[in-house]
Automatic annotation (TrEMBL):
InterPro entries: P-loop_NTPase. It holds the Pfam family AAA_24. This is AAA family ATPase. SUPFAM superfamilies: P-loop containing nucleoside triphosphate hydrolases.
């Protein structure tokens, strides 16, 4: 019976779209066009819901009214926890979600962590200086919470359109004139958590472009996983602009489940003890004690010149070092192998001595 090998099938039954750009580039309007088009083409019945941080819902509400679509809005928060609560509720009650803007939510997530961190520091030490910016070790809990949202975004059984501001991509480039490295902008991306920009199956950059004295809202298809629209540009896009992408999806069919249902915890059962300390660390400590005990047994535990010399030579021969500190830092496998070598040598030497001491018989 095959456990992992299954015939490939289309499993993305819900559109997952990302739209980013500067203010006034047409993000919200494009999201509206896509939402209405999805609702009409695939004969969806439930309302469209918007998590609105701009707020912008008032300006697009007439489009949904004209299309005969019930339009629900939550515009009272920029908190990630509220977005996830909204998302789970909308997944049951609605057909499509619009989030505008995910950039606000990402910023609030970072700011909230800093506030919580400083509140905690203040409780523990009233004189503690506030932390003004995130440091490297702060990102792990923030990223972990955001990963929960990413999984919800991808695996939820609802069409989702997420809008965000455009952010710059920076890189260092050598100045040919003075030879110095300079920080330059080399492109744009969605201003949100770094990995979020890779998650949508359709990622669109909106650009406000002036041409022949008028403003044009131009869509640049940054990524299309169906490879039907990759790299193409469209002015004043609507749903039909991106229809080839949605036609490829398995809309109305089976959607993949959360990949968070399975993990690799079972691989580490024997590496972490019940009290939380790493199993490997304890094994190293145990083997170091075993080696010391063996030295006592074979008479190499003393501090006499000859004893110490013989012990150091034995350490060097077995472990490649005369430093006991270096031996203690070795992994448990190396320590176990070294212990076995010392023990075997002692036993062989002991047997040899016994044979030499046996009385000679004619």
């Amino acid at each position: 019976m095959k456990t992992f090998l299954k015939k490939a099938e289309r499993k993305q039954a819900y559109a997952k779209v990302g739209i980013y750009g500067d203010a006034g580039s047409g993000k919200t309007r494009t999201a509206t066009e896509i939402a209405i088009g999805l609702w009409q083409k695939y004969d969806l019945k439930k309302p469209v819901a918007m998590f609105d941080t701009e707020p912008a819902a008032s300006y697009i509400m007439p489009f949904f009214e004209n299309a005969g679509i019930d339009f629900y809005v939550y515009d009272e928060s920029r908190a990630l926890k509220d977005l996830m609560g909204f998302w789970r509720e909308a997944e049951k009650e609605c057909s499509i979600i619009i989030v505008d803007s995910i950039t606000h939510i990402w910023k609030d997530c970072q700011d909230s962590f800093l506030k919580q961190l400083n509140d905690s520091r203040k409780r523990n030490n009233p004189n503690a200086r506030p932390v003004w910016q995130l440091e490297f070790h702060h990102w792990k809990p923030i990223k972990a919470q955001w990963a929960n949202f990413t999984d919800l975004f991808l695996s939820s059984k609802i069409h989702a359109i997420v809008c965000g501001r455009a952010g710059s991509i920076y890189e260092y480039q050598k100045n040919d004139e003075n030879g110095k490295m300079e920080l330059i902008t080399s492109g744009t991306k969605m201003a949100t958590e770094k990995e979020m920009g890779y998650e949508p199956s359709l990622l669109i950059e909106m650009v406000k472009h002036r041409e022949n004295g008028r403003i044009i809202n131009r869509a640049l298809v940054e990524k299309d996983r169906t490879d039907r629209l990759n790299g193409k540009e469209f002015d004043f896009p609507n749903f039909e602009t991106f229809a080839p992408h949605f036609d490829f999806l398995n809309i109305g069919g089976k959607h993949f489940d959360s990949m968070e249902k399975s993990d690799s915890r079972s691989l580490f059962v024997n590496d972490i003890s019940d009290d939380g300390f790493q199993h490997e660390k304890k094994q190293r400590e145990i083997m170091c004690e075993e080696i010391k005990g063996l030295f006592v047994k074979i008479g190499l535990d003393g501090n006499g010149v000859d004893t110490k010399k013989e012990r150091l030579e034995l350490l060097e021969e077995v472990f490649g070092t005369r430093s006991w500190t270096a031996v203690e830092s070795m992994n448990s496998k190396s320590l176990r192998e070294g212990f076995a070598k010392i023990k075997t040598r002692y036993e062989d030497k002991h047997v040899k001595q016994e044979k030499e001491n046996e009385p000679v018989t004619n």
